Amino acid sequence: MLTTAILALTLVAQKGPIELNDDNWIQVRDQIRLGTKALSFREVRWVTSIALGPEEGTKTAAPMVIWTANGHPLNLTSTYGVRSRLNLWADAPLRAQVLQFAPVAEDWQRLYSSRSWIPKGSLDSMKSLGMEGIFVISPGGKVLGFSASTNPAEVSRVLGDAMAKWLQLPAGERTWGQARIAAEKLNPKPVAQTTRINGSPRNPRTPSVEAKPTQDTAIAIEVKGAPLPATAGATTVNPGGQIQAQPPGQPRVSPILPVVFRVVAKDLPRTSTNPWADAFNLNLISMDFRQSTFLPAVFKPHEVAEWPTEMVNGLAAGVFIDCVRGLPLSFEYGEVQNSKLTTEVKNITGQIATLRIVGNLNAAKSGYWAVKPGEQPDMNEQQVRGIDLQVLGMAKYDTKARKFLTFDLVAIGRRWGGTPLNGRWDDLKPQPIGFNMTLASDAWYDQIESTRLKF
Hints:
Elements: H1 2-15, H2 25-32, H3 53-60, E1 64-69, H4 79-87, H5 92-98, E2 102-107, H6 108-111, H7 120-129, E3 133-137, E4 143-147, H8 152-168, H9 177-186, E5 196-197, E6 200-201, E7 235-237, E8 243-245, E9 257-267, E10 280-289, E11 304-306, H10 309-318, E12 340-349, E13 352-367, E14 383-398, E15 403-416, E16 431-439, E17 451-454
Parallel strand pairs: 1-2, 10-17
Antiparallel strand pairs: 1-3, 3-4, 5-6, 7-8, 9-10, 9-16, 11-12, 12-13, 13-14, 14-15, 15-16
Helix pairs in contact: 3-9
């Protein structure tokens, strides 16, 4: 069946999207899921915030390695971030070498922000070398090494030279105490943290961001929907076992719940050569919504609920977009078209509902913009970009606890065009793409600042 799925996916490039259905969606999903090699970067226990770097340096008594990119290297990131994540950390000797240091992964905006404990003069020196790359620094911010290469041998050489310089520093320049104090003053730890994600505590030092989409980033997007009436029903289980809406007039008991999803974006097999065939990007999505807005009012087999327009628009405009090779641009809501998602109750076992999610997401834009970093738009050549996806997924929902137990959604179709930072300047024609959206885990690598969609 796997071979059949691969052949079917190849036809996406030739004849358009295949029909995603209940018989093939698992095989298609498995083509999008990441294997051991792709996830090798997780074998290094990266500190995910520069604010906590000195604390790790104190534990290891070693210089700090900072892996930085435009967009967090462990999440939605730039072309350099995509390449380095894939090429560097699949190399086992390099992973072992970096563990001799205090490894930190951080978004360059936070690294170079006013809340960074690194002295301004040192930050200026780092910027002069390159905004993205692998830095090795001392507690005082002295740059011991830098490489923007995605070649493991070159980065290994830089790390070796940096460690030699570290060992030559006076003992007083190799202690992290003062840097740790500075970091804690700039980034005080919260007193309490009560927010829970999918029933589990979320790292209090990695709050979600909330911002509106702009023309140069799709990292954050705010979706505003009409509030539900205070008397809207909440789902309950009646004595007969049928799960149904709470009668109107009673107070709503379902709060707005934040749920964090992980979205993997990856090119699917194509008939032509694809030098980026192994590339992928990640995006952690925090969705704040009343779950009943897209769940049936009565939980019984074959009941269907249509997702609100603002939710569908938010996903089409800012989540299921072409980020495989780098940072994408979002779409405006007016550029979303022919998009619809529905949830159907497949069956009920006790208080657990099995849900089927199906639909389409489509967005397109035309105009004049550059498709390569640093270039100016060619006003004689109109650009087009878009995405056309079909969606199918399954979820298990605890109707009593009001939370998802599992959520596994696949979206496949075609993308076309490019934007300045998404790395598609040589790949503008329609080609197959796939996404897999699942619940984020409680693991350290899923505790990174996420895109926030608010409904």
